[in-house]
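To: structure subgroup
Subject: Chain for Friday's discussion

All,

I'm putting the inputs and outputs inline so they're searchable in the archive.
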Amino acid sequence: MDWELLATLETGRVRRAGRFVVVELDGPHRVLSTSARTGGEALDVRLLVNHQSCEGAGHEARAHLMLDEGPERYHDRVCAEIGAAAASTAVMGTAANMHYVAVARERDVDVEAAAVVTAGVHSNATCAGDPARWRESAEGVVRAAAVAGTINTMLVVSRPLTAPALARAVMTMTEAKSAALSRLAIPSGASADLATGTGTDQYCVAAPIDASGAAAPLTSTSPHMKLGEIIGVAVRRATLEALRWQNGLEASYTRGVCHALGRFGVTETALMTAVAPHLDATALELLRRNQRAVLMEPLVTAAAYAMASVIDRVRYGTLPASVAADALVQQAATLAISLAAAPSRWSEFRALLHHAARVDGAAADAGRGDAATIDPLPLVAAALALGWREKWPAP
């Protein structure tokens, strides 16, 4: 295969060819991975492989191939495709495009942490503890729904680590991945929570073995240690970069109202449908023609994120559900005055929206004390319409 060199690490190289990205390790390494055949802790793995195993949607033939062959035989197939020894190779698979791989390297004095990440979160993002889509039993694994999106991480540390430190590196790496998703406010596809990862995430972590014993292995990869810090920075940075290319999730593009509140049912389609009864035909058409600019206006989005935070705090028990309706109306008033560019009218807008919430039922369920039934859509629609009418009143 025609391999392209992406990076030269202190203890190996990162290469790419077609659907494959590999890390070739120089000499013996202690490796911890999710690989089907060589996973767990291994001392004889020399090649870390990430590959695009299928397309994200409609690739049923490939999915059936992987299911029919089983994970170990599929592992052997992948290794054969690239001429690698199956027994000394760790394999990960994903629907992500290998051209979007991100490599991030961080250093502290004499130790380097290098993260090689592909990432996609469309439809498969999840929060730990969400309702699951699969069940494994004596009869095998039953899949309840098709999903797409995986975050695969290869982490290479340039100094030897003890076995406990290697295991702790997995925790630090995972927390860094979740921190990247938190920065982008990625919603879970299975609940109203923010995502902590996807249901198919995989990893390989490697550190060299010093057979001579000349250098004592490092004993901690905790975030309290500088090594843990650079692992966290490298993984977080590479995850953000991979998501930017694979899913277009650049941070400033997540400032929209529907990104902030989409996990609570506030989609663009639903919002524009809910806004329509509040506006006359002329105002509604003007809003639709400027929809993207309006829904991504920074101060409007800031208020939408504040509403999402209120809902979360009620759901998690930080705030009593009895105050939810009033708290949401306050943030909705901020949304409306931000769109209207009329900050001095906050009290007036709050009163109007408080009345609308009672008459139209917006946020009414929140006032009944059931956090699970909070529906912000009617209130957001009323606030958006109010701000738009007041920004562009009829001549």
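Points worth raising on Friday:
Residues 277 and 284 are 9 Å apart (CA to CA).
The two ends are 68 Å apart (CA to CA).

D.
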